[in-house]
């Protein structure tokens, strides 16, 4: 990390930032073509969980290259300077992770993944049945790198 003065090294603080985010950005790349998409997610401290429809660009790209990047941010605030345009900046907390994505197959695994997602947003477990469960694909990203950064611009 170029700005080591902004690096967050405490893993629990990094996890707290992730848990405090509403969306995750999923970064994919195939044959030099990048693709970034916002997703709803769940997090268990080691993995990120998300769901998709049965088909689509994300699925095609993950099949071609299961290595992915995730990005989270919170507490973003624009800092203005009325005298100097180059002094404009942001306060923020962000986390970047890298890992390998795997599809969760079977009702038990899918339910676990969907509950990770719903617990993130609702704080509780849910039951999943019916046609929507069959049409939903659920994924887990096993993270091998997770780094955090914070900018606390001073006035």
What would you note in describing this structure?
This protein has helices spanning 11-19, 57-64, 107-122, 131-135; strands at residues 7-8, 24-30, 33-39, 42-43, 47-52, 67-79, 89-104, 137-151. The chain has 155 residues and is α+β, with helices and mostly antiparallel strands. It is globular, with a radius of gyration of 18 Å. The two termini are 24 Å apart.
Secondary structure elements and pairings:
Blueprint: E1 7-8, H1 11-19, E2 24-30, E3 33-39, E4 42-43, E5 47-52, H2 57-64, E6 67-79, E7 89-104, H3 107-122, H4 131-135, E8 137-151
Antiparallel strand pairs: 1-8, 2-3, 2-6, 4-5, 5-8, 6-7, 7-8
State the main characteristics.
eight-stranded antiparallel sheet, alpha+beta, 155 residues
Distance between the termini: 24 Å
Ranges with pLDDT <50 over ≥5 residues?
A: none
The percent range for helix content is 10-25%
Q: Report the principal-axis shape.
A: globular
- The percentage of residues in β strands lies in 35-45%
Quick take:
The chain is an alpha+beta fold. The chain has helices spanning 11-19, 57-64, 107-122, 131-135, and strands at 7-8, 24-30, 33-39, 42-43, 47-52, 67-79, 89-104, 137-151.
């Amino acid at each position: 990390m170029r700005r080591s003065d902004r690096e967050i090294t405490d893993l629990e603080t990094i996890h707290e930032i992730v848990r405090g985010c509403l969306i995750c950005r999923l970064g994919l790349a195939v044959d030099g073509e990048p693709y970034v998409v916002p997703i709803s997610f769940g997090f268990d401290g080691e993995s990120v969980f998300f769901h998709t429809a049965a088909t689509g660009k994300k699925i095609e790209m993950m099949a071609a290259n299961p290595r992915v990047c995730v990005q989270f941010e919170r507490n973003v605030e624009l800092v203005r300077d009325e005298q100097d345009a180059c002094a404009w900046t942001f306060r923020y907390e962000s986390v970047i992770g890298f890992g390998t994505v795997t599809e969760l197959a079977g009702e038990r695994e899918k339910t676990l993944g969907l509950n990770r997602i719903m617990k993130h947003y609702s704080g509780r477990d849910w039951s999943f049945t019916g046609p929507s469960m069959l049409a939903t694909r659920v994924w887990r990203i096993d993270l091998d790198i997770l780094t955090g950064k914070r900018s606390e611009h001073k006035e």
